[in-house]
């Protein structure tokens, strides 16, 4: 399993792993892939700086990346408090009443926080500035192209820039803006997704951007066979996310059994694509929380970042309660194959071994 991206980044396998956990990201990098730390959870710049220092010291000198959430068009924004004035009272009332109906207890006195500020453009810019003080080799943006000046800033520091795309036209726009790597994220993926499945999307984007722009296949990838399929479609590597939720290292971040119970019992049909998490379409695990938002009396989700500010405290309460029937959990359709919790190194080894076995079978079929 070796492509040009392995040489470009100094990695053994073209397996890029998005995760909000520094423990998972570091373990993937140590195992030969490229761990990519999601920064959106960091409200405090000093905390991100400490975590990236930890990454610098715990990846055995191997490369890693960071992922930010930054719209290309700079929005008008103020503080979190300013933005909260745009949240209708009917939405606040619905959230409060839903939490009460679902039996979600309040957080202990003194705990909790305001909305995750990492969804704000200004905070995402600070994440890039902090990252450039460390040694990542890649900046990925979950919302497509970052602003051109941010791309140039990364290039001047010697970093590659990647951006997610859900359609060929988006990929072409990213390339025109200077993005180096396109992540073709299919409908099956967890978190933000478009409307095209990866089997169709990956070759469409590969053909659109041409042979000089590397493409990572994403969406529903959790086995060596699926990596082989993605590379056969023209990708030079894969972008994975959901499968790392089912690792022992992720427990360092999750901190409760609700998540594990929820995904271990789920099937591939137990997810839903909805705007209730951030205001943009994202795939979540089906729970009583998502069902409540699909009821007739539920208000329409607010645009980003207002929706996140609206539900951030609710998510904190839900996660703290550990109830797998209510949990708010971004996850892809690959959840149906996540039936045990394993160390990151074992997951990587199995991906590589199954890829090699699949490649041999395909070689036999082709008469090679």
UniProtKB/TrEMBL annotation:
Pfam families: NMO (PF03060). Keywords: Flavoprotein, FMN, Oxidoreductase. Signal peptide: none annotated. CDD domains: NPD_like. This is Acyl-CoA dehydrogenase. SUPFAM superfamilies: Inosine monophosphate dehydrogenase (IMPDH). Coiled coil: none annotated. One of its GO terms (molecular function) is nitronate monooxygenase activity.
């Amino acid at each position: 399993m070796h492509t040009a991206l392995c040489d470009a980044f100094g990695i053994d396998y073209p397996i890029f792993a998005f995760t909000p956990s520094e423990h998972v990201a570091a373990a993937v990098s140590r195992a030969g892939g490229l761990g990519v730390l999601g920064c959106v959870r960091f409200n405090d710049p000093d905390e991100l700086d400490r975590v990236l220092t930890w990454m610098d010291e715990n990846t055995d000198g191997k490369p890693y990346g960071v992922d930010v959430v930054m719209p290309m068009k700079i929005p008008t924004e103020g503080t979190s408090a300013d933005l909260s004035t745009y949240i209708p009272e009917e939405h606040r009332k619905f959230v409060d009443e839903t939490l009460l109906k679902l039996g979600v207890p309040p957080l202990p006195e003194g705990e909790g926080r305001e909305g995750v500020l990492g969804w704000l453009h200004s905070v995402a810019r600070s994440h890039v500035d902090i990252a450039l003080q460390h040694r990542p080799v890649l900046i990925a943006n979950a919302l497509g192209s970052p602003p051109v000046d941010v791309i140039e800033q990364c290039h001047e520091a010697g970093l590659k820039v990647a951006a997610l795309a859900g359609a060929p036209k988006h990929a072409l726009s990213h390339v025109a803006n200077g993005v180096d790597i396109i992540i073709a994220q299919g409908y099956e993926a967890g978190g933000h997704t478009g409307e095209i499945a990866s089997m169709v999307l990956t070759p469409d984007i590969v053909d659109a951007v041409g042979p000089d722009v590397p493409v990572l296949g994403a969406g529903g990838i959790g086995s060596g066979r699926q990596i082989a399929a993605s590379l056969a479609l023209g990708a030079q590597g894969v972008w994975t996310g959901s499968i790392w939720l089912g690792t022992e290292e992720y427990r360092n971040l999750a901190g409760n059994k609700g998540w594990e119970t929820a995904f271990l019992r789920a099937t591939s049909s137990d997810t839903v694509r909805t705007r209730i998490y951030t205001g943009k379409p994202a795939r979540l695990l089906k729970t009583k929380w998502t069902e409540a938002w699909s009821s007739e009396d539920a208000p329409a989700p607010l645009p980003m970042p207002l929706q996140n500010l609206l539900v951030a405290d609710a998510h904190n309460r839900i996660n703290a309660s550990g109830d797998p029937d209510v949990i708010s959990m971004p996850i892809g359709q690959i959840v149906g194959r996540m039936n045990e919790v394993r160390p990151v190194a074992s997951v990587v080894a199995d991906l590589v071994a199954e890829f090699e076995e699949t490649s041999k079978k395909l070689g036999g079929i082709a008469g090679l």
